[in-house]
Amino acid sequence: MQEMKKTIIELDSVVFGWTEGQPVLNIPELSVASGERVFLKGPSGSGKSTLLNLIAGIHTPRQGSVRVLGEAVHHQGSAWRDNFRADHIGLIFQQFNLLPYLSVLDNVMLPCLFSKRRKARATERYGSLEEAATQLLKHLGMVSDALHGRGVTRLSIGQQQRVAAARALIGSPELIIADEPTSALDSDSRNGFLDLLIGECDLSGSTLVFVSHDSSLEAHFSQIISLRDINHAEELV
Ligand SMILES: Nc1ncnc2c1ncn2[C@@H]1O[C@H](COP(=O)(O)OP(=O)(O)OP(=O)(O)O)[C@@H](O)[C@H]1O
């Protein structure tokens, strides 16, 4: 018998706008099952980052519900949402948001300072946090240990991207959210990075939601979501 996949993200009748009466998002429903590799596309300014921020509990909707891993994120206060995000969601930002005064390894281990759960999972799988960070960096293509003690400001963009991905993946969070993390790379590097990222999500059992303008990347993904198709904001204006 085929195992039923758990729903990891579920949006119901979600409305979000920065100003009352000016909705950016009106999403009647959106559902993502555990293990999916989701490609979220849409024109610039259409609300992709805003949607990611709703899923990550950085913003909350004006109306409707956002459930992640079965939890009603929209009902919770900001401290609860911060803890939930630290435990269950790995974020890769467009600008990577690495801490410039920390080394490569310390940047990768950072989420484990905020989440006992992720620290325990990383240690259980790799023996120590340093080993977890080292192995993740290797799997993601940072093969030279010589870079690991280096400050992140002295890395190439491609190397910074690998550090940001390893930081998101450490401690195997159930959900990885990536906002255009390949936009600064050439197409060979983009495809190579995506193969490594998806391979690592498979190993850690993480669901991936990935935003990009670049439709040529779609072939890597199991579910393609066009924000235009699911967002009915103009019907509310
Ligand atoms: N902090 C903010 N305050 C007010 N308006 C905002 C804020 N952030 C974004 N917006 C507006 O919300 C809309 C959606 O922005 P969003 O960043 O989600 O789009 P996007 O699809 O991710 O764009 P891009 O592909 O260019 O990154 C845009 O009209 C944008 O100007």
Given the structure, what is the number of helices? Answer: 9
Radius of gyration: 18 Å
Order the strands across the largest sheet as they lie in space.
6-7-8-3-9
Per the principal axes of the C-alpha atoms, what is the gross shape? globular
Content of β-strand: 15-25%
In round numbers, the mean pLDDT is 91
End-to-end separation in angstroms reads: 47 Å
* Bound ligand species: adenosine-5'-triphosphate
Q: What's the multimeric state?
A: single chain
Question: What can you tell me about this protein's structure?
Answer:
The protein is α/β, with parallel strands linked by helices. It has helices spanning 48-55, 78-88, 104-109, 111-114, 116-126, 129-139, 157-169, 187-204, 227-230; strands spanning 7-19, 22-33, 37-41, 63-68, 71-72, 89-92, 175-179, 207-211, 223-226. It has a five-stranded parallel β-sheet with strand order 6-7-8-3-9, sandwiched between helices. A four-stranded antiparallel β-sheet has the order 2-1-4-5, with helices on one face. Helix 5 crosses helix 6 and helix 7 runs parallel beside helix 8 (187-204). The longest helix has 18 residues, at 187-204. The protein is globular. The chain starts with 6 loop residues before the first strand and ends in a 7-residue tail after the last helix. The model has no long low-confidence stretch (mean pLDDT 91). The structure holds adenosine-5'-triphosphate (ATP). Residues 18, 24, 42, 44-50 line the site of adenosine-5'-triphosphate. InterPro entries: AAA+_ATPase (IPR003593), ABC_transporter-like_ATP-bd (IPR003439), ABC_transpr_LolD-like (IPR015854), MacB-like_ATP-bd (IPR017911), P-loop_NTPase (IPR027417).
